Amino acid sequence: MFLPANPLLAQGTAFIYQGQLNDGGAPANGRYDLQFTIYNSSSGPGTIAGPLTNSATAVSNGLFAVTLDFGPGVFTGPSRWLDIGVRTNGSIGAFTILSSRQPLTPTPYAIFANSSSNLSGSLPASQLAGTLPGSAFVGYTNTVALTNGANLFAGTFSGIFSGIFNGSFFVNGGGMTNVNVANLTGVLADNQLPANTAFVNSNQTFSGANIFTNFNNSFHGSFFGNGLVGWIPTNGTAIQAVIDTGYLVTNSQLVTVTLPPSANPGDIVRISGGGASGWRVAQNAGQSIIGNFSSFANSPWTMTLSANNWNCIASSADGTRLAAVAGLGASSSGIYTSINSGITWTPASSLLAAQWRAIASSADGSKLVAAINGGGVYTNSGASWTVTASGSASWVSVASSADGTKLFAAISGGAVEFSGNSGVTWSAVTGSASWVSVACSADGSKFAAAASGVSLGSGAPAANWVSITSSADGNKLAAAVGGGGIYTSSNGGANWTLQSGAPSANWSSIASSSDGSKLVAVVNGGGIYTSSNYGITWVQQTNAPARSWNSVASSADGTKLAAAVNNTSTGGIFVAQASPLTTTTVGTGGYLIGNQGSAVELQCIGNNLFMPVSFAGNLWAY
Question: For the chain, what is the mean pLDDT?
Fold first, then answer.
């Protein structure tokens, strides 16, 4: 489509023609060769003047303007039509003639109206036709009042716009200033807004300090900043923490989160453990964490019962009631009980002297079951003991449900026997093997047994198994190899993992907290080792002497431990209780442990010190 021409108002025979060119259905851009011819009719022959060729004409957004001079004698009064041809600049081909010829309005006849230069007074708007070129407005400073709401403006505008606008505006506002946002309506796209603006549909980073003072502000998503900590779910096992960030650990393995190497007072790091093996907070050089934690680091191991051939020890869930059995030897054999966490002991005087080998307790400590290697199985739910499995058998291990009604007893070279009525009747639940240890869940619905030279399952080879322990739900198991390592299972024994954090030693017994997270194991002729993260890392108890440790027991929460030594001269019953620890070891050797379901929010308080301002679960420090 072409627009009518504009005159040069009695400036010779030349005039300016301004038009609009579409190329391929869209406004053209670039340079084109244009050819112009004047005809005396809208079609057919009748050339009056031309053709004139304007090469390399600039076209921008479809608009162009050219100066045409067909000389005198062309616009003499009759109607005239302009024929236009176009071709791409630089092309040597023929011009494409645009259809149809454009009628020339009377504007070019200003050339003929030479006397118009003498016009004085006002020219009625009804006498004007065509389009004024941009040069007609250069330097125009008077006020223009546009009162028609149907006004339509298209093109590129720059400068300062102010006042009241009526009508429709299609403006490239790249050069606009002083636009009052109160006059804007509709929704601006994100790419039309400047940086540091709250975008609706895209992410952004605010580089400045943003203060939100309206308490009705609503925020959704994760937010990071001083005191404002967002959560990042992570499935990794080694994480370098950054300040003001929370980590939701989901990996089933132990996840180590290392504190930021450089932090300022007020900086926050959060950790929440959903993974099955929990998490560990590692420190950098010079760093430490202060607070009120649980630990055996400073806890003494105190001997509360004299030397004897102690073969086994058991604990109630709260660790206050203990029971131990001793076999025949230089000291008196029998069963001993304590109701004050091992401070004082009472022997069961009514029992015969025998090779007492194993003992187990109900959760409240009121029901006990004990076995004689080469004798029978006895139960006690009060002051008296009753033999429930008579005859002679090589009983080596017993286990009890939390309520004491479901019992298991293992025979070396025989079967594992089960009683569902507190030992009144028994029946075999396994075949014969060299059974050495048995454990069960709190409800007695699941049991696990270890036999010397027999594989426990996938990942647990045939070995010299000596002891096995179970969590309350029966899913988390741990087993020790005499002269080998420690293996754990998190799926009820279907799969086993050798824990490289435990040394290879002459292990003799292992015990577990009710959730399976805290383990304790003893070495015959060595020391006592504890783990607070499902057996992944182990710490030797430096306050426990090297002895012929034969058995160990734990309270349900893992904070109270008891161990027995089978030696009539250097033996005895030893107890220890976790004590508060106010700081981790300074530097890379110190760390904090949290189990599955635990969480902590650590805040830097300066001088390389962190402290928990909130936490869930029981935190262990080293």
Answer: 85
